Amino acid sequence: MLVGLVLACTGTSLHAADTPTSLAQYRKSIGLFLETYCVGCHDGEDAKAGFRLDNIDPLVTNGQDVERWEKALEMISIGDMPPAKKRQPDKALRRHVEAWILTELRKIGRGPDDARLSQPAFGNRVDHDELFSGEHKGPASSPPRMWRKSNYIYKRFIAESRLGGGKGGTPFAPLGGHGFKDYGQLWAGESTILTLRNNADAFIADVIDGRFVHPKGPDGKPDRSRREREGKSRFGEFQVLITGEAKPDDAALERAVYRAFHLLLRRSPTEEEAKRYAAGYLRRAIEIGGPKEGLKSLLTAIVLSPEFVYRQELGLGEQLPDGRRMLSPNEISYALAFALTDSPPDNDLRKAVEEGRLSTKEDVEREVRRILATDTRRFWAQELTSVERYIDACPNPRVLRFFREYFGYQAVFDVFKDKERNHHHRALFIFKDADLFVLSVLEQDRQVLRSLLTSDRYVVHYASPEQVKRKLAQIHERKSSRELDMLARGITPVLGGYRGGHYFTTYGFEYESWNYPIEQPFAVPNRAGMLTHPAWLVAHSGNFDTDPIRRGKWIREHLLADTIPDIPIGVDAKLEDDPHKTLRQRLVKTEADACWRCHKKMNPLGLPFESFDDFGRYRDKFYFDQNGKLGGTYYEREKAIAMGNRRGGTPVKYTTRPIDTTGQLTGTGDPKLDGDVNDAFDLVDRLARSERVRQSFVRHAFRYWMGRNETLNDSPTLMAADKAYVDSDGSFKELLVSLLTSDSFLTRKDPDQ
Amino acid sequence: MTLSRRQVIKCMSIGAGSALLGPMVRQARAAADQPEALPNRFVFVVRSNGLRPWGIVPEKLQDLGADRHEQDKIHDEPLADHTLHQTMRALDPVKDYVTIVMGLSGRAGAVSDPHSANFGALGMYRSDQGSPPAAETIDGALAKAMPGIFTHLGFKMGGTGDTIAHPALSAWGKNKPIPFYCSPTLAYKQLFGSLAKNEKLKTASELDAHLLDFLANDVRRVQKKLTAAEREKLNHYLQGFEALRDRRVKLATLDDSVRVHIPSITDKYTSPVETHRLEAHFDMAAAALIAGLTNVVTIDADDLGGHYTGLGLGEKSIHGIGHLSDDFKKGRDTNFADGTDGVGARNIVRKFQMDLIGGLARKLRAVPEGDGNMLDNTLIVMLSDAGHVHHANYQHFPLVLVGNVGGKFKTSRYLHYPNYGQPGNRTLGSFYLSLLKAANHPRNAFGQVDLKLPKQEQSEPLSELFA
Predict the structure, then answer these.
(1) Domain edges within chain B
(2) Structure pTM?
(3) CATH code for residues B41-185+262-465
């Protein structure tokens, strides 16, 4: 709701207010509201959370209490205050007070930042219950827009078009911070132009001056010590212009434009475009710089054109009676292609456009189902050398990327882990395991979210049937006694396809004893779903510790569709180091009145995961040395013991204490699920049964595929998607079909109309 | 056709404006009996993790830099009697130009995220993480007031693959962030690459103008069908073209005198070590200033996600270093494996940055300009986007200034204003007003005001800074 209100108010002056707050207005309603609902607790020196409202300056525009008013607005609008157990104002009064505070703050250029609230992390600010209440009938639509392309699309273009010069910087920087990276609000600026141009110089040279070759040496054979461009374009349409002596005619120029369009935009120019680019642009460019420079300039112009940089979804299709416009068939083909893949429309989509078979929802549904009907198994066996490279092998990479960004396990690469503490840790491999876990669940396509939250059937160190066969043959051939011995004992040795140590020890498997499962996925002990997967656990951990706060925050925001308020300005949120205390003990600091208001939403959800260390290894006890200090990881303890046992050393002895994994689930809206939880397994099981969790998942899928935050108008789209998911026994494909055939995806309407 | 030096200089003054001219050229102009007002230049060096007061106070004034030190009245004393902090020894040779300013507050830029005031640090307005800028920043404002061929030059320490970025630091105005070069080689190409082949430059700029006009029409065609917000997106894109075209046109007017300042590319430019690349950025900043290519440079010296591997501190991220305690005993269990603690790590980083600033200052001082040298007309401002600590409350922004603005500032001193909450506390906004005044572009407001402090003082520059 706040988003709607905020959008209604425009203009942020950096200077004093023209119309100061009216005291009469304040007294009439706002003062009374504060008196009735707030001041009871937020009064005097001992005010709750140290936050007083009894002495707040009613003249907001005076600016003496701006930060307090902003905090009050935030707490009222996300529904955190008044607390659930206290008397509640009705919805209309709440909205009225919100609107009043916001209006007053806006007068002095304060209040929440619109641009910030339109980021995916703030999507939950729209009231969840209202969204799924059925009261809001839409009609849903998106604004006509230019959605800046992602770097993945750009890289895919370079790879697929086989142009040289694929190296170079990132022209399309992703959205920063946690969460979805590819969002409709991103835009291109000078940095995009410079990088794109810098990169394009290389591949344009490749097109116009030819590829690098080894010139012939004196002996007539290629001289491998030299490398130079061929000197001629491999495209006849360009070469003709370069060598042509007479002034080129319009037809020749148009042929060059046609070729350039196909190379860079993968489509033919329209008649108007052909003329504009040929006679209008290329001719003059050739006059200025000669044929070569002119052609390079033409290619640069296309690379820098809005179409190359942006996905255009303007709504050029049929106008509906209520003023909304459909995307045109051509727009739909691009929207669908980039919704699921990083490539422009494939042949089938293009053909459907040409034959007039891509204008109705049924047409869209047919194409979505066709694109989604792919097998991901061939991707499973890809040798993993880098994330960028292997994404290419995955059909519909954008579907997989949704799960990466939703669960946030891609952050596994950002968390630095000290080798000394666990030399087996390999971020890349546990990341791939997490990908394959997702894909194995999607392959079944039944109760997808529940499986992702609770299934213990992981894919670990995967080897394809061919790899298994080859490795077994190698073992027999090598006559490796250790592995043959294992086989003789009925244990399959590790046949996994990744190179790089025994990273699988993270799951509790040891090389010598692990009976490697050839059939995958398989049941892994002490695991349940993504939140106990090492990739998620590491991605949501610190350099040296687990991170119950971050984990709790993730669950609160991603599964419970709730909002954690901003940290108050000036809070030094740092936990003191104390090697004698467990993290749970150190977190007691956050139970102070002022902190607990927010931390109670996070800590009790994150603490059950203390049964895993910060590498994602399962544990059931803490080790303390004789000085009462925590013992660190297994490898650190082994090292300390070895050092202690050396001559002159002090032997180290460890005692253990069981880990407290209890926590509390609140906010599911279901009294049967809310309450104390015993451990992580209990927690994820209850989460998986929650209706609100399922709806929260649907909301995030909506954001990812629409590239924007939901509004109350999108309520029908969200409810339909949720219903499609439930009716199909939790099929993600059905959820996607529903989203991509929705009005929110297919229609456009100016917000100010 | 060969032009005489006098003709070249005349052409340049028409084509580029005097503010663009390199000091060498200006010397020649003076010889050609065309007295010229000297330009002002500004270099902002912005670091993350806070600039701790204890790390910049002179040795015998350590009490003033203590964590909970409360300053209740203004403290002003010359630096001549003091030894600079051990990590600032690189500034010893230019000590006459050093001013340490403490106690300025920046609550108008306070945000919930304690790690950075984002655009607010240089803009003095509230700027939340991930939001576009709400208004111009001081470097943008100065750059617009004194445009060079490169109106503004931004350098940012980034990863090896990064080429150019928009860190949340500098802005031309609302929704107009300023790009920063991460890749030294790309920056070199943009700055000096085109100078090397002047013959082709004219054609290239003509082609560029042709390209821009064409694309501008193309964009307008699309814009017609868009809502206001989307139109603005494309406006950013158009402005990017315009900036590039203007630059090309101005570069085409330059003569050979600029070329002597082109630095040569060294291993530093392509080094995988981030600190080497930062050194390359400082080299280019010096060269660009000396060659007269720009008057305003901002260097984003590090960011929280990076690592100082080149300084032997790669074990922790820069954010991780920020979390280290200043107290050796408290932090001993999370210190570096070799025992380096928070104080040590901060000293290493600060010394590295001060060494680079010292190097830049010495290079500028070595170039004669007017009656003095370039450092007399160049002010280097070092600050942190988080004020004085890693987790900031934005109540204190310590500054280290090196250089002067045409002799307008009284330098070589330690100036400590009363703390936030004490009468007489002054704001970073007032400091920015001082810069604008010194650059002969006075204003009475910059950014937002802290509504809790007296308004009148916030509309005035810091008189104590001026000679």
Answers:
(1) 1-37, 41-185+262-465, 193-261
(2) 0.85
(3) 3.40.720
